[in-house]
Amino acid sequence: MLIKIKRGWELPEAAATPECVYVNRRQLLKTMALGSIAVGSIGLLAGCDEAPAPEAQAAATPQPDPSADLYPVPRNPAYTISRPLTDEKLATTYNNFYEFGSSKNIWQAAQALEIRPWTVAISGMVEQPMEIGIDDLLAKMPLEERLYRHRCVERWSMTVPWSGFPLRALVEMARPLSSAKYLKMVTFEDSKMAPGQRAAWYPWPYVEGLTMAEATNELSFIATGLYGKPIPRQNGAPLRLAVPWKYGFKSVKSIVSFEFTDTQPVSFWETILGNEYGFWANVNPEVPHPRWSQAYEQPLGTDEKVPTQIYNGYGSYVADLYKGMEDQERTFM
Ligand SMILES: Nc1nc2c(c(=O)[nH]1)N[C@H]1C(S)=C(S)[C@@H](COP(=O)(O)O)O[C@H]1N2
Ligand SMILES: [Mo]
Fold first, then answer.
1. 333 or 170: which leads in pLDDT
2. How far apart are CA 199 and CA 50, in angstroms?
3. Can you give the pTM of this predicted structure?
């Protein structure tokens, strides 16, 4: 691991892998109660830093990304940032992608992700449901680069150049009905490619959702590239969400389905631990996670303790979306 892990408030063990430690323990007890697990295998289950499955490691040379010629794309100067960019190596080797394991070190295992053919389904409350291949979608969408900050609920943060297109452009293409209130986004499901999905206690596939107002806010971005290249598999190839005013778990990776619905989607982490990870998940330094403070964050690759900002500093774009909801803590978890 390249990140320097310090003692004290900076990424203590419990914060670095909060979800897996907690879930595995709880699940372990449940499984043990069912009598289906031998005592000798406890160590295996309880450890979060499990190595990638051998099959995944064997899938060594991934196919080249056929969208490589599209990048770099022009930077949109409206979304630049004064903070230094995170080192590319760190942003692409320190990841959360539970489909490939619950440690941060999944980038090699994620090379098993097959990114072509890749079909995206647009369904639900739309004029005409459709399926579109990723390369046709990329050809239709207005590609640009944006510098965004990213704040994980675990307190690490990064600043990276995403390439991609506004989610609003995809919504316009989909022509949702006026009855659509939410956009539900779903990650691929294939436990042969993704060893993490063999862990049956997680509610696969990974699901996230936004209100239509959030999805069409100018900040909501679908990232298809990173650092002027196609987005690496470990960062959510071939397309992932980037909603920088929300905690990182909202930014669902490797999306195969956009469904327009009038029912608020229940997201992956909400299903597992609804009292800790809610639907809104807007960043707020004053609303602590039930198990740790959110007042500060640690930019990857530094020892700095940087004050976290409300809406992760993007309030001028999004605060209006939550007018009248400010007093509800649930908006910030
Ligand atoms: N499908 C899927 N999407 C996901 C995750 C995941 O485990 N699976 N982790 C989330 C979390 S907690 C974070 S912080 C970001 C991490 O994105 P990065 O690895 O590109 O930094 O992806 C989010 N999207
Ligand atoms: Mo996260």
1. 170
2. 12
3. 0.87
